[in-house]
Specification:
By secondary structure, this protein is an alpha/beta fold. It is built from 10 helices and 10 strands.
């Protein structure tokens, strides 16, 4: 290993399975997304002063030779506050939700990392491994063991929430179980699910014929990105939407390889662990954050998680610290509301000690 705006819409400035997968997953993703280092910041008093600057990415080598790139924001709080571990979703890189990460890092350590094969992380030297949710979960477990922390809070968004849950149930697998030698005090499940659901996911459609032009890719990406938000947000945040779109279509895609996105998509249709969630420790505090406008993973998926984790709590609407203005938000939760609101959600919930009442953290 080397080294407050509380409005409902935040205006941001600034002929078989293999054949099916090939036709409807790999090729569509490649058409839409294929084109024609960060350093731990100095944590300041305001979110705006926290900068992600180039250089100095940390890496850990996994047992199979793959590498994970990671950063620790707010590192001055290590040993003082429980680290907040961010597990990003399908297609995502560690810096995508930096608005929220920088806010949370004002008061505690925040670990962000890229899944293998994405961003600054790499596959094995052969590069031929099958990507599964369990593999990604074991990657996360290895990274946390290497860091040597005694306790952490997990925050998994979308696919990241699936990976986080999979990691938590590794000790209960009947085959190749793995022990977790640290304590998970809190679990934030954001826009995620615990079982495979038909009809959800990114709206990527197969388009036969030659590779798509830049404009065709732009229109396809526009539809996909819009689905992760909601019409009202897109209308109120046109400049930010165009910025996300431009980044997706014209650059940064070498760090989001189309084949890896496709493999992640396949992995999300093959996991199964919900029957093991009943074994999770009851003193682990669980918060579900899920917008009613989520078009990627419908809000109804929260019912499955509550069934399996009945002590889980839902984020509350309201104007008090630790609440959010409304549940009317889409899949990209971090693009909604002032970042300080999300900081307060994390801070207030993590004051709830693992055994129930408010604690020192």
């Amino acid at each position: 290993m080397s080294t407050d705006k509380r409005s409902s819409t935040y205006t941001y400035n600034g002929t078989g399975l293999s054949g099916f997968v090939e036709k409807w997953v790999f090729k569509p993703v490649q058409r839409y997304f294929s084109p024609g280092k960060l350093q731990t910041p100095v944590i300041a008093d305001t979110v705006e002063e926290v900068q992600l600057t180039a250089g100095g990415v940390n890496t850990v080598v996994l047992p199979d030779g793959a590498k994970l790139a990671y950063e620790i924001l707010g590192s001055q709080y290590l040993g003082k506050m429980t680290p907040f571990v961010v597990v990003c979703g399908m297609t995502a890189l560690r810096g995508d939700d930096q608005r929220v990460n920088k806010a949370v890092a004002q008061s505690r350590p925040v670990l962000i990392y890229d899944h293998r094969g994405m961003g600054d992380s790499s596959l094995t030297p052969a590069g031929d491994e099958e990507i599964t949710i369990e593999l990604l979960a074991r990657d996360l477990l290895f990274l946390l063991i290497e860091l040597g922390w005694k306790e952490v809070a997990l925050c998994g968004h979308s696919m990241g929430g699936v990976v986080a849950q999979q990691m938590l149930v590794l000790p209960y697998l009947p085959i190749s179980s793995a022990q977790i030698p640290f304590r998970i005090t809190h679990l934030f499940l954001v826009g995620t699910r615990c079982k495979i659901n038909q009809g959800s996911g990114l709206p990527i459609k197969a388009v036969p014929g030659k590779p798509r032009s830049l404009e065709e890719r732009r229109e396809g990406a526009k539809r996909v990105i819009a689905a992760t938000l909601d019409p009202a947000w897109v209308e109120a945040n046109g400049s930010r939407f165009n910025e996300i779109l431009a980044n997706t279509v014209t650059n940064n895609m070498t760090n989001r390889p189309a084949d890896m996105v496709a493999k992640q998509s396949v992995a999300l249709r093959k996991f199964e662990f919900e029957q093991h969630l009943k074994h999770l420790p009851r003193d682990m505090q669980v918060l579900i954050i899920h917008g009613h406008l989520d078009q990627i993973i419908p809000f109804e998926c929260t019912k499955d998680m509550v069934t399996q984790i009945p002590w889980a709590q839902f984020i509350q609407e309201g104007s008090q610290r630790g609440q959010i203005p409304t549940l009317q938000f889409g899949h990209l939760w971090y693009e909604y509301f002032d970042p300080q609101i999300w900081h307060d959600v994390v801070h207030v919930f993590m004051q709830r000690a693992p055994d129930g009442p408010l604690g020192k953290d």
